[in-house]
Specification:
Number of domains: 2
CATH superfamily of the largest domain: P-loop containing nucleotide triphosphate hydrolases
CATH architecture of the largest domain: 3-Layer(aba) Sandwich
Distance between the termini: 62 Å
Structural class: alpha/beta
């Protein structure tokens, strides 16, 4: 496979000598091997720079600081001009010669084309892996091995620069999480936890910038004719849990629903990493944004969180008992509009899994805790990724939880369900008494419109009798 290309754009630039803005045609350009040029430029820089300052600049460039990136590009372009290296070939997965040299020496190496989203497929790709020396991109929903490779030494350099950026990450951490300045997330599985020679770096980016139901419907994550239904739903202030496996767009869905929140209300949002685009979706809202990246820190600030005067609390990606406990207490004291995301694959079991984790750390009867959870978070919206294409996310179902006082059982209603065979959805025009009560309390007019939209969807896309039956989960029988 030919993986080399010519830098036509840069070749034109090289015809321009800008000392006196005079245009001079260069007919004596020099062709030289790409790897030799990279080595020359590296030696040139290290001969003229203080190493300590250079390492700091390199770290900032790798994580996306544009000032430092431009600094390197300018040095490279000046050197190429001085040496008259015009018609040199470079790997075609880079956009031009100067960019190729930069990424080979100090940037993201073979990951660069994914990071820059140089094709339509790569713009929509949210995952890239370095496994050993091999590089993989998620393209059209499937992982594809790329022709470029990365050497052990270059990967070690990249890893050191990524790790040294974040003071919160220990250099000896075997599975660190890192965040780029432009929002990409990186997970490293170091040599101590992988097979020999298989150290892995996983890059994730978030290509979605439009957090609206219109966008989600266009992506076919939601039913086509459900726009007004979901707009009303989001404005009614129910306490909601967004669940699903890894990579099912839970954070994107949470951001989408938050974008319809009442801008005058004060929200308290807790994240382990700052993933939610709060300034974009709630630019005029008084949002208290906390980044708590450890269980110990969450434990320490838990009492203060509970004493805040926020109108609602959002727990983005609850992973441990402390996060679950804060989410439960926030909703249990009567707060509305509380939201959270959780890695749970079985939506009907979320109260039991939630309760089990809280009981493990704080004690308490699991069944009683499950009842409190079902009463506090009455709605679970579950998402999946289609197995044949990981880029395609789907609303799998909307589950309504109701505690029946008379028989002391948790009942689950299916409001909406995804039909795999037809890639479509069906609806059930039945909600719980508590959902009706709270909807009317929040906004009678919007609730009435919500019910009209639900009835229309249920008539047009009816759920079958068997699927619309009330579910009694195993932990409540």
């Amino acid at each position: 496979m030919n993986i080399w290309g010519n830098d036509d754009e840069l070749s034109l630039k090289e015809l321009i000598i800008d000392l006196n803005n005079d245009l001079i045609e260069n007919t004596n350009s020099i062709t030289k091997d790409f790897s030799i040029i990279c080595e020359e430029i590296k030696n040139h820089l290290y001969n003229t720079e203080i190493i300590a300052e250079e390492l700091q600049r390199q770290k900032r460039a790798i994580i996306g600081h544009q000032e430092e990136v431009k600094y390197y590009i300018n040095i490279i372009e000046r050197y190429l001009k001085d040496k008259n290296y015009v018609n040199c070939s470079y790997p075609k997965y880079y956009k031009n010669l100067s960019s190729a040299i930069y990424h080979e020496l100090w940037g993201l190496a073979g990951i660069a084309e994914w990071y820059e989203g140089r094709t339509c497929e790569l713009k929509n790709s949210y995952s890239a892996h370095i496994i050993g020396e091999n590089i993989f991109f998620l393209i059209d929903g499937k992982m594809k091995k790329m022709p470029q490779k990365i050497s052990r030494e270059r990967k070690a350099q990249l890893k050191r620069a990524l790790l040294s950026n974040d003071y919160r990450v220990r250099l000896d951490n075997d599975v660190p999480d890192i965040e780029m300045i432009t929002g990409e997330r990186i997970k490293i599985f170091a040599e101590n936890v992988t097979r020999k020679g298989e150290e892995t770096i996983i890059f994730r980016k978030f290509p979605i910038t439009d957090y609206s139901f219109e966008k989600q419907i266009k992506l076919h994550s939601y039913p086509e004719e459900s726009l007004e239904f979901f707009k009303c739903f989001a404005k009614l202030g129910y306490n909601i849990v967004f669940t699903g496996g890894v990579g099912t767009s839970k954070t994107t869905q949470l951001a989408t629903w938050l974008s319809y929140e009442d801008a005058s209300l004060c929200g308290l949002i807790i994240e382990t990493r700052p993933e939610l685009p709060i300034k974009n979706i709630l630019p005029d809202s008084p949002i208290i944004s906390l980044v708590v990246n450890s269980e110990e820190k969450l434990k320490r600030i838990r009492p203060s969180i509970m004493r805040s005067d926020a109108d609602y609390v959002v727990m983005a990606e609850a992973r441990d008992a402390y996060a679950y406990d804060i989410a439960l207490k926030s909703a249990n004291i009567g707060s509305r509009r509380c939201k959270m995301t959780a890695h749970i694959n079985s939506p009907v079991d979320f109260p039991h899994e939630f309760a089990s984790e809280i009981s493990r750390v704080f004690g308490g009867d699991i069944d009683d805790l499950a009842i409190r959870i079902a009463k506090s978070y009455e709605i679970n919206i579950h998402f999946i990724t289609l197995s044949q294409d990981k880029n395609k996310k789907r609303l799998e179902g909307i589950y309504l939880f109701n505690y029946e006082e008379e028989n002391h059982k948790i009942e689950i209603y299916k409001l909406c369900s995804y039909v795999y065979s037809s890639d479509s959805w069906v609806f059930n025009n039945k909600i719980t008494h508590n959902m009706m009560k709270m909807g009317k309390y929040q906004n009678q007019q919007i609730f009435s419109q919500f019910m009209v939209e639900l009835e229309n969807l249920s008539i047009k896309f009816p759920m079958g009798d068997e699927e619309s039956k009330i579910i009694i989960p195993f932990y409540s029988r």
